[in-house]
Amino acid sequence: MAREKIKIAVADSSFLIGLCMINQIELLGKIVNTLYIAPAVWHEVVEKGRGRYGSIEVSKTNCIKIYTKIQNNKSVEMLKIFLGDGEAETLVLAQEIKADVTFLDETKARTAALSSGLKIMGLGAFLILCKKLKLIETVKPLFDKLDECNFRLSRQLKNKFLQSAGELNTF
User: Fold this and answer.
1) Euclidean distance between CA atoms 77 and 96, whole angstroms
2) Lesser CB count within 10 Å: N end or C end of the chain?
3) How many CA atoms are closer than 13 Å to the CA of 138, on its beta-carbon side?
4) Are 48 and 61 in contact (CB under 8 A)?
5) Which pLDDT tens digit goes with each residue over 9-43?
Protein backbone atom coordinates (compact mmCIF):
# COMPACT_ATOMS: atom_id res chain seq x y z
CA MET A 1 0.00 0.00 0.00
CA ALA A 2 1.80 3.13 -1.20
CA ARG A 3 1.35 6.27 0.86
CA GLU A 4 3.17 9.55 1.13
CA LYS A 5 4.98 10.17 4.37
CA ILE A 6 3.69 12.75 6.80
CA LYS A 7 5.95 15.73 6.16
CA ILE A 8 5.94 17.48 9.54
CA ALA A 9 4.70 16.05 12.82
CA VAL A 10 5.02 16.91 16.49
CA ALA A 11 4.89 14.43 19.39
CA ASP A 12 4.45 14.52 23.11
CA SER A 13 6.38 12.40 25.59
CA SER A 14 3.82 9.66 26.23
CA PHE A 15 3.54 8.82 22.53
CA LEU A 16 7.32 8.47 22.17
CA ILE A 17 7.70 6.53 25.42
CA GLY A 18 4.89 4.17 24.36
CA LEU A 19 6.62 3.44 21.04
CA CYS A 20 9.84 2.72 22.92
CA MET A 21 8.07 0.41 25.38
CA ILE A 22 7.08 -1.82 22.46
CA ASN A 23 10.40 -1.42 20.61
CA GLN A 24 8.74 0.26 17.62
CA ILE A 25 10.34 3.72 17.53
CA GLU A 26 11.73 2.93 14.07
CA LEU A 27 8.18 3.06 12.68
CA LEU A 28 8.35 6.84 12.98
CA GLY A 29 10.92 7.12 10.21
CA LYS A 30 8.71 5.03 7.93
CA ILE A 31 5.68 7.27 8.48
CA VAL A 32 7.13 10.74 9.14
CA ASN A 33 9.77 12.81 7.34
CA THR A 34 10.50 15.04 10.34
CA LEU A 35 9.15 14.74 13.87
CA TYR A 36 9.73 17.83 15.98
CA ILE A 37 9.67 17.70 19.74
CA ALA A 38 9.53 20.62 22.14
CA PRO A 39 12.40 21.22 24.58
CA ALA A 40 10.21 20.16 27.52
CA VAL A 41 9.52 16.81 25.79
CA TRP A 42 13.26 16.28 25.20
CA HIS A 43 13.92 17.11 28.83
CA GLU A 44 11.20 14.76 30.09
CA VAL A 45 12.13 11.79 27.89
CA VAL A 46 15.88 12.05 27.40
CA GLU A 47 17.30 14.02 30.33
CA LYS A 48 14.91 13.51 33.24
CA GLY A 49 14.01 10.06 31.90
CA ARG A 50 17.62 8.84 31.70
CA GLY A 51 17.65 5.06 32.11
CA ARG A 52 13.93 4.71 31.32
CA TYR A 53 12.00 3.85 28.17
CA GLY A 54 12.81 6.26 25.37
CA SER A 55 15.82 8.06 26.77
CA ILE A 56 18.34 6.46 24.42
CA GLU A 57 16.00 5.66 21.50
CA VAL A 58 14.61 9.19 21.16
CA SER A 59 18.09 10.74 21.22
CA LYS A 60 19.25 8.40 18.42
CA THR A 61 16.23 8.42 16.08
CA ASN A 62 17.20 10.36 12.95
CA CYS A 63 13.77 11.75 12.09
CA ILE A 64 13.36 13.34 15.57
CA LYS A 65 14.53 16.95 15.91
CA ILE A 66 14.31 19.31 18.89
CA TYR A 67 12.56 22.56 17.98
CA THR A 68 13.90 25.29 20.23
CA LYS A 69 12.34 28.38 18.64
CA ILE A 70 8.84 28.33 20.13
CA GLN A 71 7.64 31.93 19.86
CA ASN A 72 4.34 32.15 21.73
CA ASN A 73 5.51 31.70 25.29
CA LYS A 74 2.35 33.37 26.65
CA SER A 75 0.22 30.59 25.16
CA VAL A 76 2.59 27.97 26.60
CA GLU A 77 2.24 29.53 30.06
CA MET A 78 -1.57 29.65 29.78
CA LEU A 79 -1.74 26.00 28.71
CA LYS A 80 0.51 25.00 31.63
CA ILE A 81 -2.38 25.90 33.94
CA PHE A 82 -4.09 22.63 33.00
CA LEU A 83 -1.46 20.69 31.02
CA GLY A 84 2.07 19.55 31.72
CA ASP A 85 5.07 21.45 30.35
CA GLY A 86 5.61 18.99 27.49
CA GLU A 87 1.98 18.98 26.41
CA ALA A 88 1.74 22.79 26.53
CA GLU A 89 4.89 23.27 24.46
CA THR A 90 3.85 20.52 22.05
CA LEU A 91 0.50 22.16 21.28
CA VAL A 92 2.00 25.61 20.72
CA LEU A 93 4.80 24.13 18.61
CA ALA A 94 2.30 22.23 16.45
CA GLN A 95 0.36 25.45 15.84
CA GLU A 96 3.44 27.52 15.07
CA ILE A 97 4.99 25.14 12.54
CA LYS A 98 1.61 24.07 11.13
CA ALA A 99 2.28 20.39 11.82
CA ASP A 100 0.44 17.92 9.61
CA VAL A 101 -0.16 15.68 12.65
CA THR A 102 0.32 16.00 16.39
CA PHE A 103 0.92 12.72 18.20
CA LEU A 104 -0.76 12.89 21.63
CA ASP A 105 -2.36 10.43 24.04
CA GLU A 106 -3.28 12.45 27.14
CA THR A 107 -7.00 13.30 27.18
CA LYS A 108 -6.75 16.96 28.23
CA ALA A 109 -4.03 17.66 25.66
CA ARG A 110 -6.07 15.95 22.92
CA THR A 111 -9.12 18.04 23.82
CA ALA A 112 -7.11 21.26 23.72
CA ALA A 113 -5.48 20.25 20.41
CA LEU A 114 -8.81 19.48 18.77
CA SER A 115 -10.34 22.73 20.00
CA SER A 116 -7.50 24.66 18.36
CA GLY A 117 -7.91 22.82 15.06
CA LEU A 118 -4.91 20.51 15.22
CA LYS A 119 -5.02 17.10 13.57
CA ILE A 120 -4.14 14.53 16.22
CA MET A 121 -3.27 10.87 16.38
CA GLY A 122 -2.63 8.72 19.42
CA LEU A 123 -0.42 5.67 19.75
CA GLY A 124 -3.27 3.22 19.14
CA ALA A 125 -4.32 4.87 15.87
CA PHE A 126 -0.67 5.11 14.84
CA LEU A 127 -0.24 1.35 15.29
CA ILE A 128 -3.44 0.69 13.31
CA LEU A 129 -2.08 2.91 10.51
CA CYS A 130 1.20 0.98 10.55
CA LYS A 131 -0.71 -2.30 10.21
CA LYS A 132 -2.79 -0.93 7.32
CA LEU A 133 0.44 0.12 5.62
CA LYS A 134 1.83 -3.39 6.23
CA LEU A 135 4.70 -2.07 8.34
CA ILE A 136 3.66 -4.44 11.13
CA GLU A 137 1.69 -7.68 10.84
CA THR A 138 -0.32 -7.54 14.03
CA VAL A 139 -1.09 -5.05 16.79
CA LYS A 140 -2.39 -7.28 19.60
CA PRO A 141 1.05 -8.29 20.95
CA LEU A 142 2.03 -4.61 20.95
CA PHE A 143 -1.07 -3.62 22.94
CA ASP A 144 -0.39 -6.52 25.31
CA LYS A 145 3.17 -5.26 25.83
CA LEU A 146 1.85 -1.76 26.53
CA ASP A 147 -0.41 -3.32 29.20
CA GLU A 148 2.59 -5.11 30.74
CA CYS A 149 4.48 -1.80 30.86
CA ASN A 150 1.51 -0.04 32.51
CA PHE A 151 0.95 2.33 29.60
CA ARG A 152 -2.34 4.10 30.29
CA LEU A 153 -4.84 2.79 27.76
CA SER A 154 -8.31 1.72 28.84
CA ARG A 155 -9.51 -1.79 28.06
CA GLN A 156 -12.44 -0.27 26.14
CA LEU A 157 -10.12 1.76 23.92
CA LYS A 158 -7.74 -1.17 23.47
CA ASN A 159 -10.67 -3.36 22.36
CA LYS A 160 -11.82 -0.66 19.95
CA PHE A 161 -8.37 -0.64 18.33
CA LEU A 162 -8.18 -4.44 18.23
CA GLN A 163 -11.61 -4.58 16.59
CA SER A 164 -10.52 -1.97 14.04
CA ALA A 165 -7.48 -4.12 13.28
CA GLY A 166 -9.60 -7.28 12.99
CA GLU A 167 -7.78 -8.80 15.99
CA LEU A 168 -10.44 -8.79 18.70
CA ASN A 169 -11.34 -12.29 19.87
CA THR A 170 -15.11 -12.57 19.97
CA PHE A 171 -15.41 -15.85 21.89
Assistant:
1) 15
2) C
3) 6
4) no
5) 999 999 999 999 999 999 999 999 999 999 999 99
